[in-house]
Design brief:
Shape: globular
Bound molecules: adenosine-5'-diphosphate, magnesium ion
CATH superfamily of the largest domain: Transferase(Phosphotransferase) domain 1
Largest sheet: 5 strands, antiparallel
CATH topology of the largest domain: Transferase(Phosphotransferase), domain 1
Distance between the termini: 52 Å
Number of domains: 2
Strand content: 15-25%
Strand order of the largest sheet: 1-2-3-5-4
Length: 259
Amino acid sequence: MSPINNYYVEAPLGVGSYGSVIKASKNGNSYALKFMNGYPEYRHPPTSEQLCLFLHEQEILQEISDSRIPKLIDLFEFNNMLFMVQEYIPGTPLSTQILQGKIFTEVEIKDIIEQLLAILIYLHTPNQGKQIIIHRDLRLSNLILHNKKLFLIDFGLAIRPYNSQDLTLPEPPTNKTSNHNASSSYIVRRRDHSLSNDLFGAGLVAVDLMDSRLAYANSQGKPVCSADFSEFIGKLLKPASGYQTTAAALAALCKIKLS
Ligand SMILES: Nc1ncnc2c1ncn2[C@@H]1O[C@H](COP(=O)(O)OP(=O)(O)O)[C@@H](O)[C@H]1O
Ligand SMILES: [Mg+2]
């Protein structure tokens, strides 16, 4: 396959609702190249909604500088297609690890949720010109675990709640769910523009990770999740009685001792 703007294609990484991602290398470094689906195969240009989400993601990534989130490297047009170049995160998404049969222990799940909340504290805190960012699409396929370090990707639906333009973004597609069916309350929570959306998302990630333990724990006659941790996850999922800030949620999680 001929290179794309001097990027040599190595492997497909994923196909999503509006974009595809490939691994490519340039000058010995690896990158993730994101581009829009259906083009140029069907020779139709992207819809304005697709273009809007695509450009929005690069705008959000431009504001972020954190080792746990891929850096935006470049945006270019090649053969009438738009490509976004991101830092390549090695490792595999949590969704793939579960499909490959990985069973996470409760301690590992607690560590993942602690790391996730720490990333969210960075996003939810304004500093050095960066506005608050709500990710709004926390799910296993958007979390990569590599050498026990967690990375958060896919900022296509992220918003800056004080940026009025972001509030006019197309709503997240309703068929994009976690492992569970989309209930009406799920859809309402996913569209929410407040940080409680991400606390709910962190709760869903915890539920999906616990879900993968179900058959194993049952076969061992052990509980899937201990009482304190289960109460904590329940509180993430219920904002009215839940945590007011991401820092409060992390502090509560750190107090839980698992045997
Ligand atoms: N920067 C990156 N580094 C490594 N893999 C990535 C990166 N960005 C995306 N991927 C891979 O591509 C998949 C789809 O990318 P994502 O940004 O989540 O797009 P979508 O909006 O289609 O879900 C991810 O689940 C992950 O496997
Ligand atoms: Mg994704």
